[in-house]
Amino acid sequence: MLRYAAINGKANATADPMRKRLVALLTIAAVMLALLAAWPFVSAGRLKLAIRTGDVATVEQGVDWPRVKATLKASLLRMAQAEPRPDAPRPGVFRRMARRITGAVAPSLISRTLDSYGTAEALVALDAQRRRWSERLGRPEPKGLIAKSADLWRRLRHVSFKGPARVEITIATRSDPRRHTRSVFELRGWRWILTEMHIERAATAPAADKG
Questions:
Q1: Taking CA atoms, which of 16, 18, 55, 175 is between 20 and 30 Å from 135?
Q2: Does 5 have pLDDT greater than 70?
Q3: Is the confidence at residue 50, as pLDDT, over 80?
Q4: DSSP letter string over 28-90?
Protein backbone atom coordinates (compact mmCIF):
# COMPACT_ATOMS: atom_id res chain seq x y z
CA MET A 1 0.00 0.00 0.00
CA LEU A 2 2.82 2.35 0.93
CA ARG A 3 4.63 1.41 -2.27
CA TYR A 4 1.52 2.20 -4.37
CA ALA A 5 1.12 5.55 -2.63
CA ALA A 6 4.76 6.40 -3.29
CA ILE A 7 4.48 5.48 -6.98
CA ASN A 8 1.22 7.42 -7.33
CA GLY A 9 2.72 10.45 -5.61
CA LYS A 10 5.73 10.35 -7.89
CA ALA A 11 3.46 10.15 -10.97
CA ASN A 12 1.42 13.13 -9.76
CA ALA A 13 4.60 15.09 -9.10
CA THR A 14 5.72 14.38 -12.68
CA ALA A 15 2.31 15.25 -14.16
CA ASP A 16 1.95 18.60 -12.39
CA PRO A 17 4.83 20.35 -14.22
CA MET A 18 3.60 18.92 -17.54
CA ARG A 19 0.07 20.14 -16.84
CA LYS A 20 1.37 23.59 -15.96
CA ARG A 21 3.42 23.74 -19.15
CA LEU A 22 0.40 22.70 -21.20
CA VAL A 23 -1.78 25.37 -19.59
CA ALA A 24 0.94 27.96 -20.21
CA LEU A 25 1.25 26.95 -23.86
CA LEU A 26 -2.53 27.07 -24.36
CA THR A 27 -2.68 30.49 -22.71
CA ILE A 28 0.10 31.82 -24.94
CA ALA A 29 -1.64 30.40 -28.02
CA ALA A 30 -4.95 32.02 -27.04
CA VAL A 31 -3.26 35.39 -26.51
CA MET A 32 -1.47 35.12 -29.87
CA LEU A 33 -4.73 34.29 -31.65
CA ALA A 34 -6.46 37.25 -29.97
CA LEU A 35 -3.65 39.58 -31.06
CA LEU A 36 -3.77 38.27 -34.62
CA ALA A 37 -7.56 38.74 -34.72
CA ALA A 38 -7.22 42.31 -33.42
CA TRP A 39 -4.40 43.21 -35.82
CA PRO A 40 -6.57 44.23 -38.83
CA PHE A 41 -8.81 46.36 -36.59
CA VAL A 42 -5.78 48.14 -35.17
CA SER A 43 -4.62 48.82 -38.74
CA ALA A 44 -8.07 50.14 -39.66
CA GLY A 45 -7.97 52.42 -36.62
CA ARG A 46 -4.54 53.71 -37.62
CA LEU A 47 -5.76 54.42 -41.14
CA LYS A 48 -8.75 56.35 -39.81
CA LEU A 49 -6.48 58.31 -37.45
CA ALA A 50 -4.12 59.10 -40.34
CA ILE A 51 -7.05 60.44 -42.40
CA ARG A 52 -8.21 62.58 -39.48
CA THR A 53 -4.76 63.99 -38.69
CA GLY A 54 -3.79 64.58 -42.33
CA ASP A 55 -1.01 61.99 -42.45
CA VAL A 56 -1.08 61.66 -46.24
CA ALA A 57 1.90 59.28 -46.44
CA THR A 58 0.28 56.72 -44.11
CA VAL A 59 -3.03 56.99 -45.97
CA GLU A 60 -1.25 56.48 -49.29
CA GLN A 61 0.49 53.34 -48.04
CA GLY A 62 -2.57 51.91 -46.33
CA VAL A 63 -4.88 51.79 -49.37
CA ASP A 64 -4.78 49.86 -52.63
CA TRP A 65 -6.19 52.79 -54.59
CA PRO A 66 -6.88 51.12 -57.98
CA ARG A 67 -8.85 48.26 -56.40
CA VAL A 68 -10.67 50.48 -53.90
CA LYS A 69 -11.77 52.87 -56.66
CA ALA A 70 -12.85 49.98 -58.91
CA THR A 71 -14.96 48.27 -56.23
CA LEU A 72 -16.39 51.57 -54.98
CA LYS A 73 -17.35 52.55 -58.52
CA ALA A 74 -19.09 49.22 -59.12
CA SER A 75 -21.10 49.44 -55.89
CA LEU A 76 -22.12 53.07 -56.54
CA LEU A 77 -23.27 52.14 -60.04
CA ARG A 78 -25.36 49.28 -58.66
CA MET A 79 -27.05 51.66 -56.24
CA ALA A 80 -27.65 54.32 -58.91
CA GLN A 81 -29.11 51.82 -61.37
CA ALA A 82 -30.95 49.59 -58.88
CA GLU A 83 -34.58 48.87 -59.56
CA PRO A 84 -37.11 49.70 -56.81
CA ARG A 85 -38.21 46.89 -54.53
CA PRO A 86 -41.25 44.90 -55.75
CA ASP A 87 -43.24 45.98 -52.69
CA ALA A 88 -42.38 49.68 -53.15
CA PRO A 89 -45.09 52.05 -54.42
CA ARG A 90 -45.04 52.60 -58.16
CA PRO A 91 -43.00 55.77 -58.84
CA GLY A 92 -44.51 58.67 -60.70
CA VAL A 93 -43.58 59.82 -64.20
CA PHE A 94 -41.04 62.39 -63.07
CA ARG A 95 -39.35 59.96 -60.70
CA ARG A 96 -39.09 57.32 -63.42
CA MET A 97 -37.63 59.92 -65.77
CA ALA A 98 -35.14 61.04 -63.11
CA ARG A 99 -34.09 57.42 -62.58
CA ARG A 100 -33.44 56.96 -66.30
CA ILE A 101 -31.38 60.14 -66.44
CA THR A 102 -29.44 59.12 -63.36
CA GLY A 103 -28.74 55.70 -64.82
CA ALA A 104 -27.47 57.28 -68.03
CA VAL A 105 -25.12 59.87 -66.50
CA ALA A 106 -24.05 57.92 -63.40
CA PRO A 107 -21.18 55.92 -64.98
CA SER A 108 -19.29 58.94 -66.32
CA LEU A 109 -20.09 61.10 -63.29
CA ILE A 110 -18.93 58.46 -60.81
CA SER A 111 -15.77 57.78 -62.83
CA ARG A 112 -14.83 61.46 -62.99
CA THR A 113 -15.52 61.96 -59.29
CA LEU A 114 -13.42 58.97 -58.22
CA ASP A 115 -10.59 59.96 -60.57
CA SER A 116 -10.56 63.46 -59.08
CA TYR A 117 -11.04 62.59 -55.41
CA GLY A 118 -9.67 59.06 -55.19
CA THR A 119 -6.29 60.10 -53.77
CA ALA A 120 -4.84 60.29 -50.29
CA GLU A 121 -4.72 64.10 -50.35
CA ALA A 122 -8.32 64.42 -51.53
CA LEU A 123 -9.56 61.87 -48.97
CA VAL A 124 -7.95 63.80 -46.12
CA ALA A 125 -9.47 67.07 -47.39
CA LEU A 126 -12.93 65.52 -47.85
CA ASP A 127 -12.89 64.02 -44.35
CA ALA A 128 -12.01 67.40 -42.84
CA GLN A 129 -14.81 69.04 -44.80
CA ARG A 130 -17.27 66.34 -43.74
CA ARG A 131 -16.45 66.87 -40.07
CA ARG A 132 -16.87 70.63 -40.42
CA TRP A 133 -20.31 70.18 -41.98
CA SER A 134 -21.29 67.71 -39.25
CA GLU A 135 -20.40 70.31 -36.65
CA ARG A 136 -22.40 73.00 -38.44
CA LEU A 137 -25.43 70.74 -38.77
CA GLY A 138 -25.35 69.92 -35.07
CA ARG A 139 -24.28 66.29 -35.59
CA PRO A 140 -20.73 66.23 -34.21
CA GLU A 141 -18.85 62.96 -34.03
CA PRO A 142 -18.44 61.28 -30.63
CA LYS A 143 -15.43 62.39 -28.63
CA GLY A 144 -13.45 60.26 -26.21
CA LEU A 145 -12.46 56.60 -26.42
CA ILE A 146 -15.56 55.26 -24.65
CA ALA A 147 -18.02 57.29 -26.74
CA LYS A 148 -16.23 56.40 -29.99
CA SER A 149 -16.12 52.70 -29.10
CA ALA A 150 -19.83 52.68 -28.22
CA ASP A 151 -20.69 54.46 -31.48
CA LEU A 152 -18.61 51.99 -33.50
CA TRP A 153 -20.20 48.99 -31.79
CA ARG A 154 -23.67 50.41 -32.40
CA ARG A 155 -23.01 50.82 -36.12
CA LEU A 156 -21.07 47.59 -36.60
CA ARG A 157 -23.11 45.15 -38.67
CA HIS A 158 -20.82 42.34 -39.79
CA VAL A 159 -17.26 41.05 -39.34
CA SER A 160 -16.04 38.10 -41.35
CA PHE A 161 -12.57 36.59 -41.69
CA LYS A 162 -12.16 35.08 -45.15
CA GLY A 163 -9.01 33.22 -44.25
CA PRO A 164 -5.93 34.33 -42.29
CA ALA A 165 -5.15 37.25 -44.61
CA ARG A 166 -8.54 38.78 -45.46
CA VAL A 167 -11.26 40.35 -43.31
CA GLU A 168 -14.50 42.14 -44.21
CA ILE A 169 -15.99 44.79 -41.92
CA THR A 170 -19.48 46.20 -42.53
CA ILE A 171 -20.51 49.39 -40.72
CA ALA A 172 -23.68 51.46 -41.01
CA THR A 173 -23.17 55.12 -41.87
CA ARG A 174 -24.09 57.74 -39.29
CA SER A 175 -26.16 59.81 -41.71
CA ASP A 176 -28.25 56.87 -42.93
CA PRO A 177 -28.27 53.59 -40.92
CA ARG A 178 -29.84 51.86 -43.92
CA ARG A 179 -26.66 52.46 -45.90
CA HIS A 180 -23.67 50.26 -45.11
CA THR A 181 -19.99 50.54 -45.93
CA ARG A 182 -18.28 47.17 -46.41
CA SER A 183 -14.51 47.47 -46.21
CA VAL A 184 -12.11 44.66 -47.10
CA PHE A 185 -8.63 44.50 -45.58
CA GLU A 186 -5.92 42.12 -46.78
CA LEU A 187 -2.59 41.25 -45.17
CA ARG A 188 0.33 42.08 -47.44
CA GLY A 189 3.71 41.41 -45.98
CA TRP A 190 3.43 42.75 -42.44
CA ARG A 191 0.77 45.36 -43.19
CA TRP A 192 -3.03 45.20 -43.43
CA ILE A 193 -4.15 47.16 -46.50
CA LEU A 194 -7.61 48.46 -47.41
CA THR A 195 -8.20 46.74 -50.76
CA GLU A 196 -11.95 47.05 -51.41
CA MET A 197 -14.82 49.34 -50.45
CA HIS A 198 -18.48 48.75 -51.17
CA ILE A 199 -21.47 51.00 -50.46
CA GLU A 200 -24.61 48.90 -49.97
CA ARG A 201 -28.21 49.26 -48.95
CA ALA A 202 -29.20 47.42 -45.79
CA ALA A 203 -31.41 45.04 -47.77
CA THR A 204 -28.43 43.84 -49.84
CA ALA A 205 -25.71 44.05 -47.20
CA PRO A 206 -24.62 40.92 -45.31
CA ALA A 207 -26.81 39.91 -42.40
CA ALA A 208 -25.99 41.40 -39.05
CA ASP A 209 -23.25 39.31 -37.46
CA LYS A 210 -20.66 40.64 -35.06
CA GLY A 211 -19.02 37.32 -34.45
A1: 55
A2: no
A3: yes
A4: HHHHHHHHHHHHHHHHHHHHHHHHHHT-HHHHHHTB-HHHHHHHHHHHHHHHHHPPPPTTSPP
